[in-house]
Design brief:
Belongs to the protein kinase superfamily. ADCK protein kinase family. GO terms for molecular function: kinase activity. Keywords: Kinase, Transferase. By secondary structure, this protein is α+β, with helices and mostly antiparallel strands. It is built from six helices and six strands, in the order H-H-H-E-E-H-H-E-E-E-E-H. Strand 4 (about 120-125) and strand 5 form a beta hairpin.
């Protein structure tokens, strides 16, 4: 309502798209069964990356309003002191994040919409001591139409 009022007073105010996006996405963000299914989809889709860990969902303890999942410890991806203290290679994390998100976007067209540092943890695996990225908050993903984009793409002629 506030955004609509501001838009009425100031027609050049161009944030009505935000209202439309919030109306569309808020129910998805609040549906924890949807989040659990997205988490499993990404875990399966990117299972060939040994460095990626997505918490397992405990379906028997989850509902539309409650999501119960495996607890995984780690530090935020932007916490250099944590990485230094745990001997985590920043360059390795950066390279692996690039691989992971590039494949999500360009291969599968299934894109994590909330990749802030609170949702991307890093850690040393307690068993193998290898560096891992823990991806959290799977409530909202965008699906791109890769097939349509591929058929519309024209080759670059030099």
């Amino acid at each position: 309502v506030l955004v609509k009022a501001v838009h009425w007073l100031f027609p050049d105010f161009a944030f009505m798209w935000l209202v439309d996006e919030a109306k569309k996405n808020m129910p998805l963000e609040l549906d924890f069964l949807n989040e659990g299914h997205n988490a499993e989809k990404v875990a399966n889709m990117l299972s060939h990356f040994p460095f990626l860990k997505v918490p397992m969902i405990c379906w028997d303890l989850s509902t539309k309003r409650i999501l119960t999942m495996e607890f995984l410890e780690g530090g935020q991806v932007n916490d250099r002191e944590y990485m230094k203290k745990h001997c985590i290679n920043v360059n390795e994390i950066s390279e692996n994040l690039g691989k992971m998100y590039s494949e999500m976007i360009f291969v599968h067209g299934f894109v994590h919409c909330d990749p802030h540092p609170g949702n991307v943890l890093v850690r040393k695996c307690p068993l193998s001591q290898k560096t891992e990225i823990v991806l959290l908050d799977h409530g909202l993903y965008q699906v791109t139409n890769l097939q349509a984009a591929r058929t519309q793409t024209k080759p670059c002629l030099l």
